[in-house]
Design brief:
The protein is of the alpha+beta class. The protein contains ten helices and eleven strands. The strands form two sheets. Strands 1, 2, 3, 4, 5, 6, 7, 8 and 9 form a nine-stranded antiparallel β-sheet that branches. A two-stranded antiparallel sheet has the order 10-11. Helix 5 packs antiparallel against helix 7, helix 5 packs antiparallel against helix 9 and helix 8 packs antiparallel against helix 9. The longest helix is centred in the N-terminal third of the chain and has 21 residues.
Length: 300
């Protein structure tokens, strides 16, 4: 298969759905009827939501011999997931990994509901421009009251989705060139990216910390000519934010430090707005992740 094949741009090529029941230790494949337009719409909206998230981290395949790496090669050659044993194998693997994870850490949940939640595993292949993409998503089930019989039921939430996702892009030769992990939790679960997908982090936390703060201070430098007072306050606030222990969400950092800042003059306020727009583009332009654990010692 080649990425130039005649397929509608941005459309989903194939999908599979499995219910993952940790308590019952069951992985059940759910048949998707050909006219399931609501599910098609649900997946399209989910794809758009994931793609627009500023919180992401890049990863790489740990090896070309892992189960996921072998599955990706099959998916590219035959993009019909319903016909691939590898798609079924990944769903079964997810169940096994989540059972193991829950056995290790389930007792730490104060609510007594376990560490890993019951949910559904969605996989789909789609075309984005001339590129073929794979997306695997674990969506936690949510309870709701049915408006017809007023009974509590369990299903996939539409408005408040809780999920973990892995997005993979293929180049024109079918080689993996882009692996992104998303998580609605503040920090991607280790079992999700390391144990299940068998990935490695592309960049270290030290690299992210050092590269990000250097890019921020350099982008901020032109403000010094407009207002030295504003420049000094914002630079000190930025360095202080990176000197802390904890998790860095770069988009939230920009909002908290720059978007809410009250400038000394109208001229400096205008300049800060320009700088803020540039800051939000830094992770992509300067090659650092938008989410990482801060390493204060790496701050110059």
């Amino acid at each position: 298969m080649t990425p130039e094949m005649d397929l509608p741009t941005g459309r989903i090529l194939s999908t599979t759905l499995h219910h993952i029941d940790i308590g019952g230790q069951v992985c059940e494949r759910v048949a998707i009827p050909g006219e399931a337009e609501d599910l098609e719409q649900y997946l399209s909206e989910l794809l758009g939501e994931i793609g627009n998230k500023p919180q992401k981290r890049e990863y790489a395949l740990a090896a070309q011999t892992t189960e996921f790496a072998r599955a990706l090669r099959v998916f590219y050659e035959e993009p019909d997931l319903s016909m691939c044993d590898e798609a079924e194998g990944l769903a079964g693997r997810l169940l096994r990994i989540e059972i193991t994870t829950d056995n290790k850490f389930g007792h730490l949940n104060p609510e007594g509901t376990g560490h890993v939640k019951k949910g559904s595993f969605l996989q789909f292949i789609y075309k984005d421009g001339h590129s073929i993409q794979y997306l695997g998503v674990k969506i936690e089930h949510q309870s709701f009251i049915d408006e017809e019989d007023f009974r509590r039921k369990i299903g996939l939430g539409e408005t408040q989705k809780v999920y973990k996702a892995c997005k993979v892009g293929f180049d024109r030769d079918g080689q993996v060139f882009d692996v992104l992990i998303f998580d609605t939790n503040s920090k991607p679960s280790t079992y999700w990216w390391r144990d299940f997908w068998e990935l490695t982090e592309l960049r270290t936390d030290e690299h992210n910390t050092k590269t990000a703060i250097k890019a921020v201070t350099k982008t901020l430098a032109p403000l010094k000519k407009v207002s030295r007072a504003d420049y000094t306050l914002l630079r000190n606030a930025s360095v202080a934010a990176f000197k802390k222990e904890g998790r860095m969400n770069f988009d939230e950092f920009v909002t908290e430090v720059f978007s809410t800042y009250s400038a000394e003059t109208e001229q400096s306020e205008k300049k800060i707005k320009e700088i803020t727009k540039k800051l939000r583009k830094l992770p992509e332009r300067k090659n650092f992740d938008s989410q990482f654990d801060l390493k204060p010692g790496a701050v110059p």
